[in-house]
């Protein structure tokens, strides 16, 4: 009798496991099929150009591209690399190589901090999937250029050059934004690839400074921290793309979760793991996070106690629009964090978010959406820019999440 019982349980478990595997394979295959078809149409519309990098869609539904000196050109080549990784189709490798190589001149770029996005999403994926000495050298030189924006006085990498905040009177002489944590992956790579600990030391210093100054006691994040260039003291904590200075911009919190997950992976320092779990749990358990886990563009939009500067468009704009880009970033991070922290609940949430992002609510129909994969992201409402539009980096992190899900538990 017991033997029959145990055999029955074993059979049920086997069927459930097979069902889960089939569901996973189906989710990946269906999304990959759509992504390849949609991207093929985007490439056709670009007519062979590799110097017009897809970024978003205008009000008429047309593709908006940028030049290489914007902060986003690395995402489209990176997406092509993920399509190659998941399909094994050489045509995607050919396209990815061509688009990646077009960015080589950026290896000496020093005008802002986004070189990690620009070069590691492109050349970093190129080296991961098709390692060459040329790619390695370009990445190391890029890290050297990024490091030129580091100051030992502030112990951080300067994000932007001098500018004023929204009140048009507060001056930022050394602004550092939470997004900057993402660029450290380039430095960690360069240190391993070159054997030079300088890049690692700069990344570590920046991560520690941001951990100290960019977060409130509950581990919600400020967008911008401005430092005194002579003393390194904090002069201001404000926002540039969020609702108000004391609110939490959704994509900023997403950058923090992803960036400190990566920092823990590269350092194995338990302080970062402890911190990122708190950042993540703040995000996932926030009462203003919708049930489908796709956040509003700011967690405190139109809440009492959160007032935008009157010169910011956010003062007039109080609509609770979703930001799919923030969700895609967190979804990708959850798959990695679930393994690093041994948290199956994060893996489960990542799968749920991936399914939601794949649904007709957020994923485009074939041939629409200027041929981007996902819709309903928000670039910067205070700048009246890219409001409820597709964004190239939302697609990039969605494909990365899909790839990470596909590669999980291979053994």
If you had to describe this structure to a student in words, what would you say it looks like?
By secondary structure, the chain is mainly α. 51% of the residues lie in helices and 9% in strands. It is built from twelve helices and eleven strands. The strands form five sheets. It has a three-stranded antiparallel β-sheet, with no helix packed on it. Strands 1-2 form a two-stranded antiparallel sheet. It has a two-stranded antiparallel ribbon with strand order 3-4. A hairpin with a 6-residue loop joins β5 (163-164) and β6 (171-172). The model has no long low-confidence stretch (mean pLDDT 95).
Kindly list the characteristics that best describe this protein.
411 residues; mainly alpha; 3-stranded antiparallel β-sheet; two-stranded antiparallel ribbon; 12 helices; 11 strands; 51% helix; 9% strand; globular
How are the secondary structure elements laid out?
Elements (H helix, E strand, L loop, with lengths): L1 H45 L6 E5 L5 E4 L8 H13 L2 H12 L13 H15 L3 H15 L2 E2 L4 E2 L5 E2 L6 E2 L2 E3 L6 H11 L2 H17 L10 E4 L6 E5 L11 H18 L2 H15 L39 H17 L3 H14 L19 E4 L4 E5 L2 H16 L4
Antiparallel strand pairs: 1-2, 3-4, 5-6, 7-8, 8-9, 10-11
Helix pairs in contact: 1-2, 1-12, 2-3, 2-4, 2-12, 3-4, 4-5, 4-6, 5-6, 6-7, 8-9, 8-10, 10-11, 10-12, 11-12
């Amino acid at each position: 009798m017991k033997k029959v019982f145990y055999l029955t349980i074993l059979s049920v478990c086997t069927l459930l496991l097979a069902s889960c595997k089939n569901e996973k394979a189906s989710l990946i295959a269906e999304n990959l099929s759509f992504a390849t078809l949609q991207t093929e149409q985007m490439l056709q519309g670009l007519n062979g150009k590799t110097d017009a990098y897809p970024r978003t869609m205008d009000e008429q539904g047309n593709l908006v591209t940028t030049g290489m000196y914007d902060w986003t050109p690395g995402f489209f080549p990176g997406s092509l690399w993920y399509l190659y990784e998941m399909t094994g189709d050489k045509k995607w490798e050919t396209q990815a190589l061509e688009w990646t190589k077009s960015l080589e001149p950026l290896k000496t770029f020093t005008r802002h901090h986004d070189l990690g996005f620009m070069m590691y999403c492109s050349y970093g994926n190129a080296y991961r999937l098709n390692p060459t000495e040329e790619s390695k050298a370009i990445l190391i030189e890029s890290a050297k250029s990024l490091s030129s924006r580091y100051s030992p006085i502030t112990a951080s990498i300067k994000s932007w050059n001098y500018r004023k905040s929204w009140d048009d009177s507060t001056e930022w002489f050394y602004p550092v934004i939470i997004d900057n944590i993402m660029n450290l992956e380039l430095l960690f790579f360069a240190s391993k690839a070159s054997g030079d600990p300088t890049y690692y030391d700069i990344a570590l210093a920046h991560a520690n400074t941001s951990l100290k100054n960019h977060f409130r006691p509950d581990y919600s994040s400020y967008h911008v921290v401005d430092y005194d260039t002579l003393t390194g003291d904090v002069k201001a904590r404000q926002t540039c793309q969020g609702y108000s200075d004391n609110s939490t911009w959704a994509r900023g919190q997403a950058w923090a979760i992803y960036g400190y997950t990566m920092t823990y992976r590269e350092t194995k320092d338990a302080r970062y793991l402890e911190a990122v779990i708190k950042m993540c749990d703040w995000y996932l358990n926030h009462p203003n996070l919708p049930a489908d886990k796709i956040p509003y563009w700011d967690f405190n939009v139109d809440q009492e106690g959160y007032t935008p500067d009157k010169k910011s468009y956010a003062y007039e704009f109080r609509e609770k629009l979703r930001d799919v880009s923030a969700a895609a970033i967190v979804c990708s991070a959850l798959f990695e964090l679930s393994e690093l922290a041994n948290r199956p609940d994060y893996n489960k949430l990542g799968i749920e978010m991936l399914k939601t992002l794949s649904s007709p609510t957020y994923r485009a129909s074939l041939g629409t959406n200027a041929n981007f994969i996902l819709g309903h992201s928000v670039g910067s409402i205070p700048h009246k820019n890219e409001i409820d539009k597709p964004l190239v980096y939302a697609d990039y992190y969605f494909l990365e999440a899909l790839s990470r899900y596909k590669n999980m538990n291979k053994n």
